[in-house]
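User: Reviewer 2 asked us to show a designed sequence for the structure in our supplementary figure. I'm pasting the C-alpha cells here. Could you produce the per-position amino acids so we can include them in the response letter?
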C-alpha cells in the first residue's frame, strides 16, 4: 500500500474513467489496476462520470492486488447562471463517512436533479458534507470557467466559498492533456492558488489504457452520441494523450510545477476507506415483543406442516407423521443455528401475502423446493420427502452461505408484491437491481460499422459470420482464429480489418444500463447506507441499485428474486375460464389435481405438448414420444435429462431403454435400489449422488453436498481426497473397497450431468398442470395461452395451428362479439381477442367494448366510426377491417376498406351536427351509394390472406397454399401427409413457413419448413444448394423440392434432403402442358384475349418454355361445345401477370393449367 512504500513515489492517478463511464470510458476495472501495477504506482482512483457503478469491484480487486483504491466521482455541478452549461468537479472519498455521503449525493442527483440526460449536484448540497475531498475540475470547473471568461473576481469568490466549505480538503486541479485552453488556465490559476494558499494538484483525465486505443475511444463516444466518426459536429473534448500515463511522463509534463504531482500522493494518503464487504445484513422482520424470530419460525412452520399433513394425508398414522416432524425439527435447528430465521420469515410473508391477494405464485424453483420448512411455511408447494428432495442441497450447515429462494410470480401482478414489500419495509429500503448490457461480438461490429459509415450490407454479412451460442459466446479474437470465412475477409479486406481492429477494444465493455429481471433488495435501513441508487431520466419510480447483483451482496444487502413466469398467468387465466364457463367447477383448484391422470399422460406420450411448460420444443416432443412417461417421476426426470450433457453422453438413450425393458437395470447394490429406482438405475440427479455418498460412503448430507460440488468442479486434488474418504467410509460401513471405488467413479462420471431434482420437480408440477388443462379443458387452456402471448404474433400463429390440431375452432375477431382477450365459447371453440390485432391498443379496445356494452352492438362501419371515432384512429380501423372484425356487418372487406374515408368523414359531420337536423339521422345507409358498393369486387383469396397477415401476423381464414392448391395438385398430387421414404428422389411442394440455419459437423445447413395444409415437413438444404436457390427461398412463397425422403432413426420423423428447388414459375415452365380458357355462351371478347396473348407472347425468346392455348367453347342455349387449339404463334409462357389479366377478363374459374 501507499503508506508502506519504501521507494520514492512521484504521482498517483486521481481522475480515471472506466467502462462504467458509459459514454466515454474504455478501461475495464481489472485492466486499470493491472496497468497501475505495471507502471509501479501504488494507488489509483476510480472517478466515473456521475456514478459509482464499478466502485466495489474496483475496491475489492485493488486490495486483492496490493493497490490502494481511492473511490471518487466526476460530477456535474449545476450552473444557475446558464443551466445548459453545468460545471464539473471531482469528489474523492476520504473515509467511510465520506463514502456514505457520496452515495447519498449521487442518489439525490439521480432522484431529484436530472437535466437533459445529465444528473447534477447542487453546490449547496455539499455544505457540511464530511469525509470528502473536492478537486476544482480544471478548465471544466466553475473556477476554470470564470477564469477563462475573464471573470477573475468571480473566480476568487468561488475559491473562497470552496475553501470555507472544505477548509483543508479543496484543491485547485490542473491538467495538460492536450487541450488548447489548459495552458492559459494554468497561467491564471497557479498565482491565485499561491496567493490564497490553496494547494494545487495535477491530474490526468484517463479515458483509455493505451495510446493506440484513442480511435476506438472516439468510436465509443460516437456510438453514444449517434454520430459518424467523420462528423464535424462530433465531440472534440478528448485527445490521444488521455491514456494511462507513467509517473515519468507526468514528471515531464509538470516539471515546472512539481508540487502539483506530490500533492496527488498526499491526497491518496488522505483517502482511507475500510468497507465491510461480504457480510449479509437482513432486514428486520417484526414479531411480538414477547417472542423471538426463532420461536416464531418454529411455531409457524410446525402449524403449517400440521395443516398440510391433515389435508393431504388425513389417514396417516403417527409413525408416518413423525418422519415429517423430525425432519422439520432438524431443518429449523439448522436455519436458526445459521442465523437465517428472519430470512425464511420474510420470504414466507410476501409469498403468503401474494397468495392471499390473488397473485399467482409458482410451486418453487431451484434447490429451495428441497426444504420442508419452506413447504410448511407456504414458500413452496411440493412435498420434499415424497420426492426425495434434500434440504442440504439448499442450505448446507457445513458450508455457510446465504440461502437464496427464487420465487416465480405472475408477471402481471409481480409489481403488486414489490409494492407490498415497499409498504412493509419502507420505500427507501427497497429497490431493484441494476444490470449492465455489454458490447457483444455481433453488435459491436454493427455499431462500429455504423460509426465508420460503412455499408449496412458489409456489416451485416460480417456479423452473420459470427456463430451465435448464448451459452458459449464467441469473441472476435476467437472468430478470427476459428472461422475461415471471417479470417479470410479480415486478412484480405482493409475495410474489414480496420473495422474489427477498432471493435476489439470495445468488445465486452458496458454499453447500457438496465434493470435485473427479478432481483429485489430489502435493506435493514436506508438503502443509501449500503449503496447509491440510480434511475433513468423520467423514471424516478423505477429505482435500482448502482451495484449489480454480485456487488450488492458484497455491500451486505440481501437479494430476493421476484421472477416473472408467464406460464403462471396462463394457469391463472385458464382456471378462471374453467370456473366461469363450467357450472360444476366453481371451486376448481389446480392444487387438488391427482398426479396420475391417464388423459394427461396420453397427451405427453403423443408429444402433444405445444404450449405445455418446459415440454414444447421439438426435441422434447421427440423425447416424450420415445420415453412414454406414465408417472410424475418420469416428468421430473425428463426435465432433468433434456440438456446437452445427458443427450450427448448417451445417458438419455440408456434411460429410455431401461424404462422400456430394452436394457438391464443395474442398481449396483440392493441398498441403492430405493435411491435409483425412480430413474431405472441411472444417476440423473445431484441429490442421488448425495444420498449414495451418505448411504455408502458414510458422509453427512452436508458433507455429501460438498462432495457434489467438488465433483462438479472436477478439481483433481479435491477429488483425490474425497476418493480416499469415500472408500474409507464405505469400508467402515461394511462395503467392499471394489464397490466403493466403482460407485465413486460412476458418481464422478455422472456428476457433471446431474441436475438439481428440487428444481426439476417444482417445474415438473407446472408442466403437469399445463398438460392437464390442455388435456381436459383445451378451449380454456388455448384461450388463456393465446391471450398471454397477444404481443407475439409468431407464438399466436403456433398456438392457432395447434388449437386446430386439437379440434379447437378459433372463431374470427368480431367487433360485436370479441373482447380484448381470447375467450372460450364452449368446449371446442374460442373467440378471437381484439388485443391480438396489430395496431389496435388495449385502451382503445377496452373503450370499444365499454361503448358496445352501454349502447348495444355496432350496426355498420358508419355506426362504429360515429360511436368510436374519438378513441380509435384510421389506421386502427383499417387493421380491424383487414382482420375480418367487421365481416359480420359486411363480408365485402374491399368495400369496407374503400369506403373508410367516407364513413369517417360522415361520422365526423354527424358529430358536428348532432344537435341539428341532419340527413344522417334517418338514413345511415346513404353514406355510400349502393351502386358504388355493388361495383366494388371483394378481395380474392390471396389479397384477403395478405391483408389478414398484415393485421394478425399470419393467415387466419384459409391456408395460403389454397391460393395455388387447385393448380399445383395437378402437377404434384402427392400431399405432405402422404410422403413416405423412397430410394429415388421425389417432388414435394408447399408454402415456405419458416427458414433457419444450423451449424453441424458437415457445415451450415438451412432447415426449411413446408406446409401444404395437410402437414408440415422440414427439409434440409445444404449450403451449396441453398446458395443456388436462395432467391426462391422466401417465407410465404410456394416452392417445390426435389429430394430424397428417408426416416430419421432417432425421432422417427420423415427427413428430406433437397437436391433442387422450384418456385411456381419454374414449376409451370417445367411441368405445364397447356393453358385452357373456358368461354361460355356468346360472352367472348376475342379482341381483348388476342391483345393479352400478343402482349405476353414469347415465341422467339423462350421457345422451350412455351405452352399451347386451348379454348373450350360452350353454348348452353344451343347445347353445343367444342375445344379448339390455337396455332403455334399463340403459344405463351405462363406467368402470374398473364393469368392475372386473363382472370380479370374472363374470371378465375374459367382458366385451367393442364399438367
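Assistant: Here is a per-position design you can include in the supplement:
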Amino acid at each position: 500500500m501507499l503508506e508502506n512504500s519504501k521507494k520514492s513515489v512521484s504521482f498517483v492517478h486521481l481522475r480515471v474513467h472506466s467502462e462504467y463511464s458509459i459514454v466515454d470510458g474504455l478501461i475495464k476495472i481489472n485492466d486499470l489496476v493491472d496497468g497501475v501495477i505495471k507502471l509501479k504506482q501504488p494507488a489509483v482512483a476510480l472517478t466515473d462520470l456521475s456514478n459509482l457503478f464499478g466502485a466495489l469491484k474496483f475496491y475489492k480487486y485493488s486490495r486483492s492486488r496490493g493497490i490502494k483504491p481511492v473511490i471518487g466521482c466526476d460530477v456535474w455541478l449545476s450552473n444557475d447562471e446558464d443551466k445548459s452549461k453545468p460545471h464539473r468537479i471531482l469528489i474523492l472519498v476520504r473515509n467511510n463517512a465520506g463514502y456514505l455521503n457520496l452515495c447519498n449525493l449521487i442518489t439525490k442527483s439521480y432522484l431529484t436533479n436530472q437535466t437533459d440526460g445529465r444528473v447534477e449536484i447542487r453546490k449547496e448540497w455539499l455544505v457540511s458534507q464530511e469525509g470528502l475531498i473536492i478537486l476544482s475540475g480544471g478548465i471544466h470547473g466553475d473556477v476554470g470557467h470564470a477564469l477563462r471568461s475573464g471573470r477573475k473576481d468571480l473566480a476568487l469568490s468561488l475559491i473562497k466559498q470552496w475553501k470555507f466549505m472544505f477548509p483543508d480538503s479543496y484543491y485547485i486541479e490542473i491538467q495538460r492533456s492536450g487541450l488548447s485552453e489548459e495552458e492559459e488556465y494554468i497561467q491564471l490559476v497557479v498565482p491565485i492558488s499561491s496567493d490564497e494558499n490553496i494547494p494545487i494538484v495535477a491530474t490526468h483525465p484517463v479515458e483509455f489504457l493505451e495510446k493506440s486505443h484513442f480511435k476506438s475511444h472516439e468510436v465509443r463516444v460516437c456510438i453514444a452520441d449517434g454520430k459518424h466518426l467523420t462528423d464535424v459536429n462530433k465531440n472534440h473534448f478528448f485527445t490521444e494523450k488521455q491514456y494511462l500515463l507513467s509517473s515519468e511522463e507526468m514528471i515531464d509534463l509538470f516539471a515546472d510545477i512539481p508540487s502539483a504531482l506530490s500533492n496527488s500522493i498526499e491526497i491518496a494518503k488522505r483517502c482511507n476507506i475500510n468497507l465491510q464487504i461480504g457480510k449479509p445484513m437482513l432486514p428486520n422482520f417484526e414479531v411480538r415483543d414477547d417472542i423471538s424470530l426463532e420461536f416464531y419460525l418454529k411455531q409457524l412452520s410446525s402449524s403449517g406442516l400440521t395443516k398440510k399433513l391433515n389435508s393431504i394425508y388425513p389417514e396417516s398414522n403417527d409413525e408416518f407423521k413423525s418422519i415429517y416432524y423430525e425432519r422439520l425439527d432438524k431443518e429449523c435447528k439448522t436455519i436458526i443455528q445459521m442465523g437465517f430465521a428472519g430470512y425464511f420469515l420474510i420470504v414466507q410473508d410476501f409469498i403468503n401475502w401474494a397468495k392471499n391477494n390473488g397473485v399467482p405464485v409458482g410451486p418453487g424453483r431451484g434447490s429451495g423446493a428441497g426444504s420442508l420448512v419452506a413447504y410448511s411455511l407456504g414458500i413452496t408447494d411440493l412435498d420434499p420427502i415424497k420426492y426425495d428432495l434434500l434440504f442440504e442441497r439448499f442450505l448446507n450447515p457445513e458450508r455457510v452461505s446465504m440461502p437464496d429462494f427464487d420465487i416465480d410470480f405472475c408477471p402481471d401482478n409481480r409489481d403488486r408484491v414489490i409494492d407490498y414489500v415497499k409498504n412493509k419495509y419502507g420505500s427507501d429500503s427497497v429497490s431493484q437491481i441494476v444490470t449492465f448490457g455489454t458490447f457483444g461480438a455481433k453488435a459491436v461490429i454493427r455499431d462500429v460499422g455504423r460509426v465508420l459509415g460503412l455499408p449496412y450490407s458489409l456489416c451485416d454479412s460480417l456479423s452473420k459470420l459470427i456463430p451465435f451460442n448464448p451459452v458459449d459466446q464467441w469473441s472476435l479474437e476467437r472468430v478470427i482464429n476459428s472461422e475461415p470465412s471471417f479470417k479470410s475477409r479480415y486478412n484480405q479486406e482493409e475495410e474489414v480489418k480496420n473495422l474489427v481492429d477498432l471493435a476489439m477494444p470495445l468488445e465486452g465493455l458496458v454499453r447500457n444500463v438496465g434493470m435485473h429481471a427479478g432481483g429485489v433488495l430489502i435493506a435493514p435501513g436506508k438503502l443509501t447506507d449500503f449503496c447509491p441508487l440510480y434511475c433513468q431520466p423520467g423514471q424516478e419510480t423505477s429505482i435500482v441499485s448502482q451495484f449489480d447483483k454480485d456487488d450488492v451482496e458484497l455491500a451486505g444487502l440481501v437479494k430476493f428474486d421476484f421472477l416473472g413466469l408467464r406460464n403462471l398467468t396462463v394457469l391463472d387465466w385458464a382456471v378462471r375460464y374453467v370456473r366461469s364457463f363450467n357450472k360444476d367447477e366453481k371451486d376448481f383448484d389446480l392444487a387438488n389435481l391427482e398426479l396420475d391422470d391417464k388423459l394427461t399422460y396420453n397427451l405427453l406420450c403423443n408429444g402433444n405438448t405445444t404450449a405445455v411448460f418446459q415440454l414444447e420444443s421439438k426435441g422434447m416432443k421427440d423425447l416424450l414420444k420415445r420415453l412414454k412417461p406414465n408417472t410424475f417421476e418420469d416428468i421430473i426426470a425428463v426435465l432433468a435429462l433434456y440438456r446437452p450433457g445427458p443427450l450427448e453422453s448417451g445417458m438419455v438413450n440408456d434411460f429410455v431403454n431401461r424404462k422400456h425393458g430394452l436394457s438391464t437395470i443395474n442398481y449396483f447394490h440392493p441398498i441403492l435400489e430405493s435411491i435409483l429406482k425412480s430413474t431405472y438405475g441411472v444417476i440423473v440427479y445431484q441429490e442421488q449422488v448425495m444420498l449414495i455418498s451418505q448411504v455408502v460412503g458414510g458422509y453427512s448430507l452436508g458433507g455429501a453436498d460438498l462432495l457434489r460440488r467438488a465433483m462438479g468442479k472436477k478439481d483433481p486434488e479435491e477429488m483425490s481426497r474425497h476418493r480416499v474418504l469415500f472408500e474409507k467410509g464405505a469400508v467402515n460401513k461394511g462395503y467392499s473397497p471394489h464397490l466403493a471405488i466403482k460407485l465413486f467413479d460412476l458418481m464422478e462420471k455422472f456428476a457433471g450431468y446431474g441436475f438439481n431434482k428440487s428444481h426439476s420437480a417444482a417445474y415438473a408440477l407446472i408442466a403437469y398442470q399445463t398438460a392437464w388443462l390442455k388435456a381436459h379443458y383445451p378451449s380454456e387452456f388455448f384461450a388463456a395461452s393465446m391471450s398471454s402471448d397477444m404481443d407475439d404474433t409468431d407464438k399466436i400463429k403456433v398456438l392457432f395451428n395447434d388449437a386446430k390440431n386439437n379440434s379447437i375452432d378459433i372463431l374470427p375477431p368480431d367487433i360485436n362479439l370479441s373482447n380484448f382477450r381470447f375467450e372460450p365459447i364452449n368446449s371446442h371453440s374460442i373467440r378471437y381477442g381484439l388485443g391480438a390485432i396489430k395496431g389496435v391498443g388495449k385502451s382503445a379496445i377496452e373503450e370499444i367494448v365499454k361503448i358496445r356494452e352501454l349502447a348495444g352492438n355496432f350496426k355498420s362501419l358508419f355506426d362504429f366510426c360515429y360511436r368510436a371515432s374519438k378513441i380509435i384512429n384510421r389506421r386502427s380501423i383499417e387493421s380491424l377491417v383487414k382482420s375480418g372484425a367487421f365481416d359480420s356487418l359486411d363480408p365485402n372487406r374491399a368495400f369496407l376498406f374503400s369506403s373508410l374515408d367516407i364513413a369517417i368523414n360522415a361520422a365526423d359531420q354527424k358529430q358536428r351536427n348532432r344537435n341539428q337536423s341532419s340527413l344522417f339521422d334517418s338514413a345511415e345507409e346513404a353514406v355510400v351509394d349502393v351502386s358504388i358498393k355493388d361495383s366494388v369486387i371483394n378481395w380474392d383469396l390471396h389479397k384477403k390472406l395478405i391483408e389478414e397477415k398484415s393485421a394478425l401476423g399470419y393467415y387466419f381464414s384459409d391456408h395460403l397454399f389454397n391460393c395455388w392448391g387447385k393448380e399445383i395438385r395437378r402437377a404434384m398430387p402427392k400431399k405432405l401427409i402422404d410422403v413416405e421414404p423412397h430410394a429415388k428422389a421425389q417432388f414435394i411442394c408447399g408454402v415456405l413457413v419458416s427458414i433457419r440455419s444450423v451449424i453441424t459437423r458437415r457445415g451450415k445447413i438451412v432447415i426449411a419448413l413446408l406446409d401444404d395444409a395437410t402437414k408440415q415437413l422440414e427439409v434440409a438444404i445444404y449450403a451449396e444448394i441453398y446458395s443456388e436457390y436462395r432467391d426462391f427461398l422466401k417465407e410465404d412463397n410456394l416452392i417445390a423440392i426435389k429430394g430424397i425422403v428417408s426416416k430419421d432413426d432417432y425421432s422417427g420423423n420423415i427427413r428430406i434432403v433437397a437436391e433442387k428447388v422450384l418456385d411456381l414459375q419454374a414449376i409451370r415452365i417445367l411441368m405445364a402442358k397447356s393453358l385452357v380458357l373456358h368461354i361460355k355462351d356468346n360472352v367472348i371478347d376475342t379482341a381483348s384475349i388476342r391483345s393479352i396473348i400478343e402482349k405476353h407472347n414469347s415465341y422467339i425468346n423462350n421457345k422451350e418454355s412455351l405452352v399451347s392455348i386451348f379454348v373450350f367453347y360452350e353454348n348452353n342455349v344451343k347445347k353445343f361445345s367444342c375445344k379448339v387449339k390455337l396455332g403455334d404463334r399463340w403459344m405463351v409462357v405462363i406467368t402470374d401477370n398473364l393469368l392475372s389479366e386473363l382472370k380479370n377478363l374472363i374470371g378465375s374459374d374459367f382458366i385451367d393449367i393442364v399438367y
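For the response letter, you might also mention the following. Residues 1072-1154 form one domain. The longest helix spans residues 293-312.
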